[in-house]
Amino acid sequence: MLGILLFVVLGICYVAQGVVIPLILALLLSLLLSPVVTLLQRAYLPRVISSIFVLGAVVGLLGGAVTLLAQPARNWVANAPATIQSVQQRFHSFRAPIRRAEEATKQFENLAQTTNHPTVVTTQTSFLTNVASSTPRVFASIMAVLLLVYFFLSSGDHFLRRIVEVVPGLTDKKMIVSIARDVQAEMSRYLVMVSVINLGVGSLTAAGMALLGVPDPLLWGAAAAVLNFAPYIGPTMTAIGLAIVGFTTFKTVGHAFAVPAVFLAIAFVEGQLITPTIIGRRFALDPTVVFVWLLLWGWLWGIPGVLLAGPLIACFRIVCQHVEALKSTGVLIGNGSLSDT
Q: 200-203 long-range contacts, Cβ below 8 Å, gap at least 24?
């Protein structure tokens, strides 16, 4: 039954990803912002007004960041073919044996092919056309996320109170309220801590790139902060991108290697010292389980799935720690034991 339920849930997530992804993203954002709204509410500001104020501030900050980074991002995307060609020229000597093997393979293929073969004409949709066609859908998803975040923030404990009213026994009511409040508090605390850590990684990366003379250091700092939400895969992608930037920007090999090396040093300190110290063993996750989880959600949802997989599995472990029937599952996906839960 559990296996069938798992496949049903995964199937729903795949088929209805246009609805599920904005819903999950809005829920995570509301948990991230709820401590600020609660703080303003304690300052005698109505929760509806507090939600509008916090959401407006976040939209303003994100809008300013996108406006600031949009032009550098467009420039890097437009120069991507030239950048790849420059990297290929830098590693020309390393590609010589591979090229000879490719030429030999093509000669064998030509001998095996007949002289008459149809001409295939391929058409490729330009990058700008793809962006233009997907813009309305992305804009609709963003608006849906913002509206859902507002409803989650402004409603507060309204939905929880409805659930408590339905539950018959007083003991069950108290248990549900206790579990719900503990899970909500810990999930909010975890998301805030991870967001602060990733913001620090992005800031240090931007500062390091600026000191090394890398063009558009704020862009690479923002990329490092966002991609760091995806464990293992995100930092690897950032390091590869910075390696390409280093080898296409600087002449000397040492200066080029210094660009990804600085980020890798920051990521190592964050992953081995800062995050374990701040978050602790209670939120520690098994690396193998995390990697399989990333592959699963990346296969289901692509890039959004990879970015959401880390917070999702951490929040799932928090739920497992508070629900008695799921504690064994929490032990399986974590690095601790039953005593840690």
A: 200/270, 200/274, 201/225, 201/228, 201/266, 201/267, 201/270, 202/226, 202/228
